[in-house]
């Protein structure tokens, strides 16, 4: 095998591994949201506010401070119908992420474009959040998302250049 073919083959394998990593990441995000949605269903016909108070106490949070107060106020107003709606939305998110993950795993061009679109649409919001108040979690989420979207764009551009050559 010639050197250029060998180099092309190893580059292709490296990009396949990269796409597999992105596919696993997207699948894990979908699974996490599905588990959260299933967790919400456990609170149907139960006092979710009481569970929220116990959670705030368990982690020794001040219930009068900003975020715990928002959480507790929300838990007072949520109803079973809203929990079902959130669980269904979580299931739909899971299905979309799994379709994307399988498409990326199989190196489908449509999945690469879809991943760029769905990942890229969050970047302006994430940038706004970092500019508004820079925290390590916000910067990390933005950096990871920029990295994934940039990598997918690189693979798409490289594959498109190879098809036209």
The biggest sheet amounts to: none
Percent of residues in beta strands? Answer: under 5%
Note the gap between the termini.
21 Å
Q: Evaluate the radius of gyration.
A: 21 Å
Helical content band = over 70%
Secondary structural class: mainly alpha
Order of helices and strands: HHHHHHH
**How many helices?**
7
What do the pLDDT scores average to? 89
> Are there runs of 5+ residues with pLDDT below 50, and where?
none
Number of domains: 2
Shape estimate:
elongated
How many strands appear in the DSSP assignment?
Answer: 0
Which features characterize this protein?
2 domains; single chain; elongated; 84% helix; 7 helices
């Amino acid at each position: 095998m010639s050197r250029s073919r060998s180099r092309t083959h190893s580059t292709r394998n490296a990009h396949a591994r990269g796409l597999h990593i992105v596919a696993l990441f997207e699948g894990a995000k979908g699974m996490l949201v599905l588990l959260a949605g299933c967790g919400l269903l456990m609170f149907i016909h139960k006092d979710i506010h009481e569970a929220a108070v116990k959670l705030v106490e368990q982690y020794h949070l001040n219930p009068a401070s900003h975020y715990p107060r928002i959480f507790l106020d929300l838990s007072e107003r949520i109803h079973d119908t809203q929990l079902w709606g959130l669980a269904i939305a979580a299931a739909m998110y899971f299905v979309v992420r799994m379709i994307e993950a399988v498409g990326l795993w199989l190196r489908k061009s449509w999945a690469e474009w879809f991943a760029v679109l769905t990942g890229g649409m969050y970047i302006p919001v994430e940038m706004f959040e970092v500019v508004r108040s820079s925290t390590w979690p916000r910067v990390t989420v933005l950096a990871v998302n920029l990295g994934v979207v940039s990598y997918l764009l690189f693979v798409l551009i490289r594959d498109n250049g190879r098809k036209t050559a």
